[in-house]
Sequence to fold (221 residues):
Amino acid sequence: MDRWSITAWLCMVLCAFVFFTYEGEEKRSAESLQQEIAGEIIRFHVRANSDSEEDQALKLLVKEELVEYMGELLCDVHDKQEARRILEDNIENIENVAKGVIREQKKEYNVEAYFENSYFPIKTYADMTFPAGIYEAFRVDIGAAEGKNWWCVVYPKLCFVDVSYGVMPKEAKDELEAVLDEDELKLLYENSAGNSCSDSEDETEYVYEFKIFRFLNKLFK
Fold:
């Protein structure tokens, strides 16, 4: 191997080291931003009794009624702590609203509403992708709660806007901009799959291409 080849390969190794070091720093930065985002929002989950077609349809009826009811409760709220307090104070009322829907459908499932902090995979909501991590969520369990969940963000009030076209409306973006900074918003919008509010629990896969190696391969051919 001549001197030029050795120099070229050493350059590639050095560039690879810099690349992976930078990538690691970016990942740590993303993790930090995820934690900051989680500290500013409250997620809302309604979990069905099972994955049967009937139970999944019931879940959607319950969520529609709860979204409307909680929309009224949180109408003029612009602070996460206040939103949490209002939801905590109205847990029994929220459970009763859900039970009312269930009784109308001739079912006898119990309902439990509560706050939890737990790990959630990557989720896409309209044109935003929430990174995986620990989040606070207001959860409503129907019956055995063994079915897939419906989810949205209850604070800021993203549950109460139309995302059927896969794009977050301006009023919802304004809500987010009021509580998240520029870097946090960028993390939500970049790499978004653009799906609407979904029951799917699959994680979105992100594919990174090592373009630097393509460049170096061409350079040293």
